[in-house]
Amino acid sequence: MRFVRFVSLVVVIACGDASPNAPDGGRPDATASDRDAGGRSNDGGADAALPDAGPPGEWQLEPGHFHPAVMPMTLVYPRPDAETATHARHRWAHPGMEYRIPAGVVQGGAWPFHYELVEGPSGATIGAQLDTVDGVQRSGPDYGVVRWTPGEALEGTTTEFVVRVTDQEGASVEARWTVTVDGGRFLFLSPEGTPANPGTLDAPMRDVADWYRGDPGDDTFADRIVVFREGSYTPIGQDGNENLRMEVGKKPMSYIGFPGETATLDATRASWTFWAGTTDISFIGLRFVGSRVVQPGGGEVNNARTISFYGGRNQDRVILFEVSAEDIEPGALGNDNPAFVWRPSSGERRGHHWAFVNNRFGPGGPRSGNGPRPVSISCVSYVVYEGNTVVDWHGTHTFGDKANVDHETQRNNDLWAVAREVIGPGYGLVAGLSDSYDASHVPGHVELAYNRVRIPEVDGPAQYAVSVGRSAIGDEARDPVWVYRNSIWGDVAFWAEEIYEVGAEGNVVHGSAGRAAAMREGDNLIVAGDEASPFDDATGELTGAARDTHLGTHGAEIR
Q1: Is the CB of residue 404 less than 8 Å from the CB of residue 432?
Q2: Does position 145 have pLDDT exceeding 50, yes or no?
Q3: 49 vs 254: CA distance, rounded Å
Q4: CB contact at 8 A, 552 and 559
Q5: Under a CB-based contact definition with an 8 Å cutoff, are residues 245 and 275 in contact?
Q6: pLDDT tens digits, residue range 303-339?
Q7: Does residue 525 lie within any of the structural domains?
Q8: Is residue 240 part of a domain?
Q9: SS3 label, residue 547
Q10: Looking at the domain assignment, is residue 207 inside a domain?
Q11: Phi, psi of 213, rounded to the nearest 5 degrees
């Protein structure tokens, strides 16, 4: 298959005097917070000179060391003010609390990118480029992330941010949005708080039940941004089933952990359910533990889902950033897509612009008939999974491009020891290509790039590190899929290749590609599973002759 060419770069820019952190080794099993930031940015205030990005060669890779873009760059997060609801988390800052968001989450393009803070308040920074460690580039937690702490004197002011994202071929997009400093937009919780407190920084409430008030129709705290301080919480919602039912204009849509602190949410008591028309939903910097597998009355939950999206209308602009989810379970049956995040069929009522960035999932299991999964979504357009880590996973697969998903990028993720239990076939990275929920909408335009995927060797049903088209039923044509520059421990399968185009280039596979003609025919290094591995078992990096010959042109490592 011919790859369509589009281009990218990467650097770090800041407003202020923040100093860089020490880089990390970038292990496949490292968490997002284990990896360190790139650089810092320069002053991007409206009256300041634009930052000097340095000579082009400092951040742009040589030809052949990046893959040409297969889809044009599309901004997923943050979207412009004219498109977002006023409650969107990225549009508000609290004086004295760090404002931290991924600025310029892009679907498509020729990665790695360069981020430039063109406009912003004094002191704001952005991680502009990848770190370089021993001649190899790796992403850190501040790569592409805006950081800014407004002072008390800025209360009530509004400022504009402009971030330019440039790819290796020189194409670029701009993220442009405004931020208002307003302490009244935020609702604080703390183990030191009380239910009677107003929820301010100095007088926080104790837990979720204090503002939910047992009633899904209570709108006292509609559209607030809920901030969890350091400590442990047990979210409980409506009377009876305890679930947190979220409807438009009635409840908060953003939930964040106070930057630099660890807020742990017990996820065994209640599920978060977002209903028709809810938009601009954010979960940022929170730690979830467990799954709701038992009803308040003691009955078992058939299919456990922690964050779910229901209803007959779109859910647009959803982001999970720096969230961790541990001990995810499937429920009693686990045969209907149990997952930490789940969106079912909505037919033609599609969701748009969903991003999962720098999250950590695992351990998960035990494996069930169809799960559990960190994410299982259907009928969403323009999706990005980037910088996520999945470890010790016992489930059917990880990022669930289930049905009628299009324009999706799965980039720079670490999947370490996934699809472990032997009940049926298991999968690591997946592009499903099913059109079972909306025959009018063609799934596809999916890229799997710069990922590191490891499937343990097991006896029993086949386990696939990468699987494309497994749920593509029938003979209707699908839109293309591109699989490039991945480091893959395990087998690869491109099912039903006759109904979609698939391009595979620059991958390193230690396993079989017997079910993937495009992988065998493309420019890939394929090493049989019984031969010496091209990967270092401890670090996941290329080793030996494979490293000498292919580093920087094949596999996920960047140089």
Answers
A1: no
A2: yes
A3: 34
A4: yes
A5: yes
A6: 999 999 987 778 999 999 999 999 999 999 999 999 9
A7: yes
A8: no
A9: helix
A10: no
A11: 60, 25
Angle at 258 between CA 256 and CA 262, to 5 degrees: 95
Q: Does residue 222 fall inside a structural domain?
A: no
pLDDT of residue 2: 34
Instruction: Give me the phi and psi of 487, to 5 degrees please.
Output: -105, 115
Contact, 155 vs 179, CB < 8 A?
A: no
> Number of helices and strands (H, E) in the chain?
3, 43
Tell me what the mean pLDDT of segment 382-399 comes to.
92
- Residue 355 sits at the vertex; the CA angle it makes with 220 and 266, to the nearest 5 degrees, is 55
Domain that holds residue 52: 13-179
Q: Is the peptide bond before 191 cis (omega within 30 degrees of 0)?
A: no
How far CA 343 is from CA of 252, 471, 518, in Å, comes to: 19, 17, 31
Among candidate residues 179, 196, 218, the one where a domain is terminated: 179
C-alpha torsion angle, residues 124, 128, 134, 140 (rounded to 10) = 70
Q: Tokens 């698939």 correspond to what residue?
A: 502
* Omega prior to 330 cis, within 30 of 0: no
Q: Provide the terminal-to-terminal Cα distance of the chain, rounded to the nearest Å.
A: 26
Asked if residue 478 lies in contact with residue 432, where contact means CB atoms within 8 angstroms, the answer is no
Look up tokens 């386990």; give the residue: 463
**Which tokens is 414 given?**
């670490």
Identity of residue 496? A
Q: Which helix (H) or strand (E) holds 284?
A: strand 281-284
Number of domain units in the chain: 2
Residue whose C-alpha is closest to residue 493's, from 450, 412, 400, 430: 430
Tokens of 456: 């343990």
pLDDT digits (tens, 9 = 90+) for 465-516: 999 998 887 788 999 999 999 999 999 999 999 999 999 999 999 999 999 9
> What are the residues whose beta carbons fall under 8 Å from the beta carbon of 104, sequence distance 6 or more?
75, 113, 115, 144, 163, 164, 165, 173, 175
As a whole number of angstroms, the distance between CA 279 and CA 479 comes to: 27
Strands 125-126 and 360-361: unpaired
Residue-wise DSSP of 211-265: HHTT-TT--TTTT-EEEEPSEEE----STTT--EEE-TTTS--EEEEPTTS-EEE
| End position of a domain, from candidates 179, 205, 233 | 179
CA distances from 79 to 27, 102, 326, 427, 435 (A): 32, 12, 30, 32, 27
